[in-house]
Specification:
The complex is a heterotetramer of chains A (about 220), B (about 675), C (about 325) and D (about 475).
Chain A (H helix, E strand, L loop, with lengths): L3 H23 L3 H26 L2 H29 L11 H25 L7 H18 L3 H22 L5 H29 L14
Chain B lengths: L7 H21 L4 H28 L3 E9 L2 E7 L1 H24 L5 H23 L3 H19 L6 H28 L10 H6 L4 H19 L8 H7 L2 H26 L5 H23 L4 H28 L3 H36 L10 H4 L1 H14 L6 H14 L7 H33 L16 H19 L1 H16 L25 H22 L4 E4 L17 H11 L4 E6 L11 E6 H24 L4 H18 L1
Chain D lengths: L1 H22 L5 H26 L2 E3 L4 E3 L1 H30 L5 H23 L3 H19 L5 H36 L8 H6 L6 H19 L7 H8 L2 H30 L3 H21 L5 H22 L2 H32 L10 H4 L1 H14 L6 H16 L4 H23 L15 H15 L3 H14 L1
Antiparallel strand pairs in D: 1-2
Helix pairs in contact in D: 1-2, 1-4, 2-3, 2-4, 3-4, 3-10, 3-13, 3-19, 4-5, 4-10, 5-6, 5-10, 6-8, 6-9, 8-10, 9-10, 9-12, 10-12, 10-13, 11-12, 11-17, 12-13, 13-15, 13-16, 13-18, 13-19, 15-17, 15-18, 16-18
Classes of the chains: A mainly alpha (about 220), B mainly alpha (about 675), C mainly alpha (about 325), D mainly alpha (about 475).
Amino acid sequence: MQTPFLLQFINLLAALLLLIAFAMLTQRRILSLINLFALQGAVLSLSTFVVAFSTSQHHLYYSAGLTLLLKVLLLPWLLHRLIRKLNVRWDVETLINIPTTMLVGISLVIFSFNLAAPIAQLSEGLTRGLIGIALASVLLSLLMMLTRRKAVSQVVAFLSLENGLFFAATSATQGMPLVVELGIALDVLVATFIFGIFFFQIRETFDSLDIAHMEKLKDD
Amino acid sequence: MDSVSVSPLEVVGWLVQLWIVLGVAGLVLQRAPRLINNVIFPLSALTSLLLAVSGMWALGADPGVMVLPLGLPDLPFHLRLDPLSGFFLILLGGASLGISLFGAGYFKTMAGGTLGLLCLEYHLFLAGMTLVLLADDAYMFMVAWETMALSSYFLVTTDHNIPDIRKAGFLYLLIAHVGAISILLCFGVMQGGNGIAAYTFDAMRHAQLTEFWSSAAFLLALFGFGAKAGVLPMHMWLPEAHPAAPSPVSALMSGVMLKTAIYGILRVTFDLLGTQLWWWGVLALGLGLLTAVFGVMFAAVQGDMKRLLAYSSIENIGLLLVGIGLTIIFHVYGKHALAALALTATLYHSLNHAMFKSLLFVGTGAILHATGERNMGRLGGLIRRMPWAAMLMLVGVLAIAGLPPLNGFVSEWLLLQAFLLSPGLPNSYINMLVPVAAAVIALAAALAAYVMVKFYGVIFLGQPREKVLEHAHDTGTWERIGMGWLALACVVLGLAPVFVVHQLDLVSLSLIGSSLGNAAGNWVFLTPVDTERASYSPLYFLLAVLAVMLLTSILVRHLYHGRVRRSAPWDCGYPAQNARMQDTAEGFGQPIRRIFEPFFKIEREVPSPFDTHPRYHGQSDDRLWYILYLPIKYLTEKLASLASLLQHGRIHLYLTYTFVTLIVLLVFV
Amino acid sequence: MEKYQLLFAVLFQLAQLVLVVVFAPLLTGWVNQCQAWLQNRSGAGVLQPYRVLRKLFSKDAVIAHNASPLFRVTPYIVFGCMWLAAAIIPIIAVDLPFSMAADVIALVGVFAVARVFISLAAMDIGTAFGSMGARREMLVSFLAEPALLMVFFTASMISHSTQLPVIVDTLAHHQFVLYPSLAFAALAFLMVLLAENARIPVDNPSTHLELTMIHEAMILEYSARHLALIEWASSLKLFAYITIGIALFLPHGIAEVGNWAGLPLAIVALLLKLVLAGAALAVFEIVSAKLRIFRAPEFLATAFLLAVLGLLIHFLLGA
Amino acid sequence: MIDLQLLALLLAPLLGGALLAVFGSRKWAAELNSLMSFFTFAASVILTMRVIDSGPQVAFHEQFFIDQFNVFLVALTAFVAFTTSLFSRPYMRIEQHHGKLTTGMLHLYYSMYQMFTFAMLVALTTNNMGIVWVAMEAATLTTVLLVSLYRTPASLEAAWKYFILCGVGIALALFGTILLYFAAERVLGEGGTALLWTHLNEVKGELEPTVLKLAFVFLLVGYGTKVGLVPLHSWLPDAHAEGPTPVSAVLSGLLLNVALCAVVRSKVLVDGSLGTHFAGYLMMGFGLLSVVVASFSLFRQKDIKRMFAYSSIEHMGLITFALGMGGPVATFAGMLHMTVHSLTKSAIFFAVGHAVQKSGTQVMENIRGMLQVSPTVGWGLAIGTFAILGMPPFGVFASEFLIITTAMHEYPWTTPFLLIALGVAFAAIFGKIQPVVFGETTAKRLPHSPALIPVFVHLLLVLMLGLYMPPYLADWYRQAAALLG
């Protein structure tokens, strides 16, 4: 069952996931961001597929398919449509400059690897160390959310965060119970729709998708 | 009463229920204000009387215990009526009897809706105070305690349209609440065992506490109850809330509610805590002295009659605290008879203060109704317009000034005796402290006389300072009866000290295990230790003074002619005398203000010699407000503005919080 | 025997009651006479106070229109209180049954009653002087009263009693001890005596200069028999104070309980002491100057502090 | 049988949501809303009686689980949801009358309201920690739409913040759940049972502590965001202040409880696995921080709903603190506090809603003299405020009494913070509400008469809980406390 090749392949995919997360962190253009997001989805789907294959858990095939459908096709398509409609292409600048962000990101990766090290020792075989990568990509996405100004890129970051989680759910733990996965997928879908509604409402109300307009509610 | 099957506690329970029913009836009958005035309040007074009687009955009886089916699970309401509670019930009943009777007349002018509500709150207040005295578990105690605070808050803010009154109510309830939390913590320290049942007083009595925790409990209790009693520096609410409340309510608050705090301190210190430490006594003593002098000093410079009385209450609370401190010290050092003496003095003074302060407060109510004026600088000469009120108030004034043969003197006498007999304590510091303390007490008592001369003289004597005072009317019948009862109580308590002390012995015996016993004297001579050491007989004293006076007046009348001529007062050669040339309240207080200048924050506005309409304005504020309360307020505001920085409006910042929290937790896992 | 003793004591008490009221003005006269001599005046004679009283009693009383009953009853109260106070101080013998009813604290209380009433009466008419006098009187007393109490306390601590007869008995008849604390107390007492009896340096009994008077300002509205009673009460007060001083600080010579034989000697000793004390008072008054009214509290605060110091010294030295 | 009862409980709101999605624009939509909420409530009562009778139950292949702890929350949720629907009927009409809402918005409101109830009930009753997560997310999504109902810039901003912050939070909770599963599957094996709480609870001693520690951090941060623990609370005041008042009431009264319930479930597992008080201490720390920060934040509030939102943070902090302390008394107190806080806070929001409608503003300086305008609203607000401030004899005091005294006994060092925080909170709220209730007024009359019966029903219940607790209710709490340890 556990062929070294498959293991290496999953590890490769994991590394790819992390790489894409970094790439997203440094990306200024929204279009490329969405493309990267789709790519990430593809990697996720592939890794789920491989895990399903290697552990022969059938429900993981559904998961892989669902991921492909949702995260590679549907969501990027939706987002593309959205930005075309809303006519936003650039995330003008990030809040912290990109080299700094990178530095922070790298330390986050080291941190999460360290954190995951004792757990990795528990886990036998296949998924060794994947928790660390999942954690790192979750934290990187979170970092991306902190540093983005435009609502759209924040949402993409959020979705990428979910990707990281999904990776943890499927690859690191070899799949959650099906009902949970279905629920998660449904929620993500609904969330995206709501995001879409919001984008229109926000734009309608503020004439922009810059979150800087939404800093009125505060204690003073 | 002669039926054996009924216990005092049950009777008191019924009376409390009756009060609540009366209160609700008042709310229901709000369209019939006459009924409320002429039926409900007198009935309430009758209930008070019965309560006092049951309290007296409980003094001699074994402690009664009762468990109600209410409360928390595993912690139903426990009630207990022991001599200490019984004594305070007498105090409550006795004072509220007069106040309710007075109220029956006083609230006549109030609109129906307000009156109904007030009637409910008034009776809840009374019921709450009674239950505080009966409570035998922490939860019940706190519920009753806060019911008392809340109902009195609503009573204070009866005239809530006036911003100042709202402010007073706010300050009052805030300090009361902080105090209540402190009391709560005190119970938390004292709880015995585990589970909810650990909060009964009985479990607390058996709890084993280390010295550290005992002291923590005592300090928390002192702070918490002190906040209610108006002990320095938590006194700030008192001079604000008392003037704001309707006068009968002020009377209840000052006369009775403050005593529940004294009750609380006694209960915690001597009953619930198994051991005491000597320095508690020193602390209480020191705090009491400070409070007493502070209170009377500020009373001397007040211009508002109710504020003056409020500060005087602070002084008296200080005296009570001194008594408690002495009791602790003697008790710790095993001087049982002396401890009993100090405790007796404390309890006696509580009772006295309840009577005369209630009398004076309701009296100010009568004045307020007659003139619509609280500022003494606009009163004067009322003795001629309101002879009844003036006469009854004179009794109260003389009593509170500590003059023999009235009641105020007896308790001060007992307290001073306790001081005088103190030498021989094994701690030399305390030995040195005692004479200084006695001196301070004496000073406070003398200043109290000053204050009271000012109070009475400026309000009742002299010429009316305003035209409207010509139309002032005297008190009505209910008011007179109420005040009469309180004045009578002052006289009786003053003349029959031996009887009272014998009753108080039962309390000390149950609380600290010692009493004055037969040493208290025979029926007419009060001799707390023995006849050689000290004795006092107000009855003989009064008889002698009366006899001498009578003799003199007979002699004068018979041997000399009785010709009397009326004429204008002598003008000293300066014909333009008018009422404004008398001392105002501020003027009368001026020497005190000058002597104790550093303690006051004085704002003065003096007219220049060329003003055509000269106006003088002087105000003496409490420095503590500026050096303690305002800084706390500023600090809170500062911290609040720091806290508001958190909520900065930027979502990135909020996400950063989440992020940082997560990272920090992960680092520390 | 005991029964007789009690009876005798009661009789003795009544006798003292009568004697003090009769002879108190004499002491005032004597002090005034001494003063006159010291001022190189011939003086009106020691009987002058009696003459004044007689004259006042025979005059028509004039009372302001707005005087209340309080105003009219006050002279009797003041007089009664002072009389009683003077009567319970052991001056010749220590068994005075009425002393049982009022110990030293009560004695201070009696003085306070009189003071409060006279202050209230002063405010009753509503003239500028009346209330000024009342205020000043209370100002003086709020420091003098605790000082007096502290003086008493010192003596009480020594004798373990607040009963005047017991105090005097202890001081006079037990073994002779020098009490340094009593020295402080004595000084304090002297100051209180001056202040309370409206003497120089706190007040001046013989002036009606508005700005300086205290006691006289209060009684400006009184006339005829009311004034007489008040003047008489003042004499009684002075008498009481001087005898208190004698009882506390020079008790020697007073008769012991039941020792009727000692009485004549005691009477002689008392007379001597009174004569000396009166003269000393006069001398003290002559050599000091009237203080500004606002210096009076300082003067009295000094007295108060001295008294407290005396008490502390008692604790410190045990004597 | 239990399956059926549970089905009724869950179907009622689901059906209601579906029906209102269709008929939400009709005139009787409000009545339908109340009716469906009533059905839910009735079902919850039946379920509760069942659990009282026969103890903990599992249903639907162990996917659902009802024990004493969650059934009281179910009953509470259904009850408050019902009374809130009663309140919202006239309230929303007045809003519509004032031109703030359109029929379309109301349509959305009614259907989302039912869906929200459904999501909360699922989150409470499910046995599967994964489904808990799904339901929490669903509850977030439905309320996001409710918060932004008015479509004003402010409400959009609030909803956006709510959405993003809670979305992130809940995502972190998912990571925690995954870690939990990771640890569980090693003991329970792969597949459906590894996330079932009942199973986890049985084997909690065998779960890998290091993983569980990590998992709890994520779960706490995740669900803690929804509870409103400081410093994860930032969304809460905005969402409460800008959403419609009935939504504020259910958010404060119910959603926070549900999220806390999830945290508590995790805590039981984690502390059971670690054998230490790790999770408890963490909760105590967050609770204490929340209480203190929220109290000071209260001080400067101008908006009345915002202020009470902070008060919710304070109280949730107190509950978290109590549940973190553990032990029978504190847990009992924590649960009691949950109940009374829900009842009181929703009652306050009801009263506040009408007060705001009467004076036309949420700024407290402009709301004055409510007692004069409408004694019922005024007294409701005054009594509610005193109740929430912990004045006896209301139930809030009972629980605070137990929490504070236990803290004094067990963790004395925390009490100065509690003392200061409660004092400051009292000063802040009381000082601001007093002039709102008392004094002169400028407010006007309303087009529809307000529904104040819910206010007084809630307050009466709270009063009763302070003075007398029926034996079955007490047993219920006690068993729940024993369950949580």
